[in-house]
Amino acid sequence: MAAHRSGRALVVREPGEVVLEDRTVEAGGGLLVEPYFVGLCGTDLEIIRGDLDPAYTRYPLVLGHEWSGRVVEAAGGFAPGDPVVVEGVFPCSVCGPCREGRTNMCANYEELGFTLDGAAGPAVAAPAHLVHRLCDDVPLAAGALVEPAAVVLRALTEIDIAPGSSVLVIGDGTVGLLAAQLARMWSPASVAMAGRRPAQETLATTAAGVDDFTVDVPNAEGYDVVVEAAGSTVAVENALRAARPGGQVLLLGIAGHGRSANLLVDDVVNKDLRIRGSFSYTAAAWATTVRLLNSGRFRPLPLVTHRLPLDRYSDALDLLATPSGEPRGKILIEMKGTSK
Ligand SMILES: [Zn+2]
Ligand SMILES: [Zn+2]
Questions:
Q1: Does residue 59 contact residue 108 with C-beta atoms inside 8 Å?
Q2: Which domains does the chain have, with CATH numbers?
Q3: pLDDT tens digits, residue range 268-283?
Q4: Separation of CA 118 and ligand 2 centre (Å)
Q5: Which end of the chain, N or C, is less surrounded by CB atoms within 10 Å?
């Protein structure tokens, strides 16, 4: 029989119903990868609640779009046990956007953990060309941050961060922390963060290299670049306010399907603002993120604050949904040992 793995999977049967179920995943024509670490994020909560645009989800669904693992069986130039990450967006490669390299806008959108079963299960089968080898000295847990980092990196490359500029990140979740860390590669003079929880300050300043952390309102006005990573409509409004005349605003957060922000038209026009949105990541951004991780220039592991076994998935989801007085970075589910 072809390579396969059976075991428990974290399944959203329909919005509001999350269970552990037995699943079997076969390699099919692809490479079989056993997940070791699966990161949870706010988007998983939106999938569970049914808040995401229905065009981007399919139920029942195995969760898990941020993850790393090991190759099960030799194939496609990989050896068993190779540490890898897998591009979650499966581009069709033939539509107009794919041909232009904008694989994030593929007209035949399919993504692990959204429309395809994700990594919080016994295995993932993927085309070998979407599988990326990690260096042996890269902690496998760090690989689980490649997905959110690729989203952030792709967005940052779409704007112009001049050396010496001032950057403000609004939002203190993992995406905000990654944005602060990765923005450093453009050599800005300063990176400030306007967060929501005082407990995040240490994580922001030590793990993400933030120079100046404030709660709710930024310390200053007139930033060259403002990155909205909070995923709320108020954060979008604050971002437009905090940018300097001629500045740039990057919208990274997803505020929820159908929600609107108050657009202060005067601010946008009179301040000559450039506003940019960015969705997901391209194949190129993914490859760059893996390269940065393998070279040691990108070290996201300090952003991981919690690791829980699959059995404790509901504790993990509670941790994510309910802010506590503790610092909270990336929450990982440890999958190893759940398949057979
Ligand atoms: Zn995510
Ligand atoms: Zn396509």
A1: no
A2: 4-150+281-334 (3.90.180.10), 159-277 (3.40.50.720)
A3: 999 999 999 999 999 9
A4: 20
A5: N
